[in-house]
Design brief:
17 helices, single chain, 46% helix, binds pyridoxal-5'-phosphate, seven-stranded mixed beta sheet, alpha/beta, Aspartate Aminotransferase, domain 1, four-stranded antiparallel beta sheet, Aspartate Aminotransferase, domain 2
């Protein structure tokens, strides 16, 4: 048989998160013989919006199916203008459409930016796992900045790290709102980070893919407004428009970057020519100002908030569990480290083993463990996504009878997201069982000791 030699660069990269999750679930989630487990698993792992693609976007895609010609490299002008107006209207960020480049997903555009920009990358952790394989693939120097203590970059920690880095250019990856914590940076926090970046000439890639999911949209501030000369903003259709499969993202370049954009154009033309033309036309409807889109954003972010608050409240009531309080996205970061001794007593020695033990019968809980969030392998933190429900049905029920009081909201979760309710109860059961097993082992051990003692 022919032997294929794979480029070392490819062999060296980590499995990206989407592949990692799928492989993990296939490997460890065997079909369960118990009839009560026929539902599969409690899906706290996948970061996919449960809602339907907005109707205007779907309609526009159908209407533009005949557009078979290549688009220009940076994207069709109508879309770049729609994105410019969208940013002004929703995020108060006024930007010339020539600074906007469209690409097949934010992920690809971040990769392209890392390709074109020389420099050491500063990666705050925990992080979305998408960044690290790209950084490694491109053989870039990088440094982690652990923000585990309060979940956000602090100017002091940032400056402390920057002073140790030798490279003439440094690039900070800022993910705001944040995956996995669900936290949102305030204007003041961004200003403090900007002061450090200005002082040391740091570039920022501000991944704002979850901006539109901010529960109180007035709380979201784009880094592009605070640090316009040094920030590359990335955003797209995947999360706010529940259209990850459309593969459409955009980047907004900093001010005064004409030359850089010409170089960027070269990269895009070399790698993928242009983004799909019908998808670009469909996206116009998603960024265009319309009552339908405004309602879509309003309803979906309210539902994310209700699900997030329920998940937050329920997990924090569990003994020893602490989580971040999400203000956006559809995730939170849960800390199970107070259970370390119990994990170790049950041979669960790292976060990978933790995820494996959760997916087994009778628990069937799928979540993203610390190792997939670029945390230490022995950090028993996990990302919990609250999206395992029928989004279309939830939207309909929300419109018919919007929950107002806190008990209405709990009822709403119970009716529309029973798997979230049951899955969280299952996490509690897992923790109880873990304790019981450990305690029975310990008492077994002391009985054994008594018997064998002279
Ligand atoms: C923080 C973050 N950035 C980027 C992406 C990828 O976005 P896109 O689908 O536009 O490539 C994701 C997807 O999960 C994400 O969570």
């Amino acid at each position: 048989m022919k032997k294929f030699v794979i480029d070392q660069q490819v062999e060296d990269i980590e499995l990206p998160e989407n592949l990692k999750l799928n492989t993990f679930l296939q490997e460890f989630h065997s079909d369960c013989p118990h009839p009560e487990c026929s539902f599969g698993f409690y899906g706290f792992a996948f970061g996919q919006s449960p809602f339907p693609v907005p109707k205007p976007v779907q309609d526009s895609l159908i209407n533009n199916a005949s557009k078979g010609t290549y688009a220009g490299v940076p994207g069709i002008p109508e879309l770049r203008e729609a994105i410019s107006r969208y940013n002004k209207r929703h995020f108060g960020f006024d930007v010339d459409s020539r600074r906007i480049y469209v690409g097949p997903g934010t992920k690809e555009l971040i990769f392209n930016l890392l390709e074109i920009l020389h420099g050491t990358v500063i990666l705050p952790t925990p992080a979305w796992l998408g960044y690290l394989p790209q950084i490694r693939f491109l053989k870039k120097n990088y440094h982690m900045l652990n923000v585990r203590s309060n979940g956000k970059i602090t100017p002091n920690d940032l400056e402390h790290l920057i002073l140790r880095l030798q490279d003439r250019q440094k690039i900070l990856i800022l993910n705001n709102p944040n995956n996995p914590t669900g936290l949102v940076y305030s204007q003041l926090e961004l200003e403090e980070i900007t002061d450090v970046c200005r002082k040391h000439g740091i570039l920022v890639i501000s991944d704002e893919i979850y901006a539109q999911t901010t529960f109180d949209i007035n709380k979201f501030v784009s880094m592009g407004r605070i640090y316009p000369e040094g920030t590359f903003i990335t955003n797209g259709l995947s999360k706010s428009h529940a259209a990850g499969g459309y593969r459409l993202g955009y980047v907004i370049f900093p001010q005064h970057t004409y030359e850089l954009r010409q170089q960027f154009k070269k990269i895009l033309a070399t790698e993928y020519t242009a983004t799909s033309t019908p998808i670009q036309f469909a996206a116009i409807a998603g960024f265009h100002e319309s009552r339908e889109m405004d309602e879509y954003f309003e309803i979906t972010r309210k539902i994310h908030q209700i699900m997030g608050e329920y998940t937050f409240q329920t997990l924090n009531k569990m003994e020893g569990v602490k989580t971040t309080k999400p203000e956006a996205t559809f995730y939170l970061l849960a800390n199970f480290n107070t259970y370390s001794d119990y994990f170790l007593a049950n041979k669960i020695s790292n976060s990978q083993k933790f995820s494996e033990s959760l997916i087994q019968h009778p628990y069937h809980i799928a979540l993203v463990g610390g190792d997939s969030l670029v945390l230490e392998r022995t950090d028993f933190s996990a990302r919990i996504a609250f999206v395992d429900y029928d989004g279309q049905r939830a939207m309909k029920n929300y419109v018919n009878n919007p929950p107002k009081t806190s008990s209405d909201k709990i009822e709403f979760v119970k009716t529309n997201a029973p798997k979230i309710v049951d899955g969280l109860a299952m996490i509690q059961r897992y923790l109880n069982d873990l304790k019981t097993k450990t305690n029975s082992k310990t008492s077994q051990l002391s009985t054994d000791t008594e018997v064998t003692a002279p």
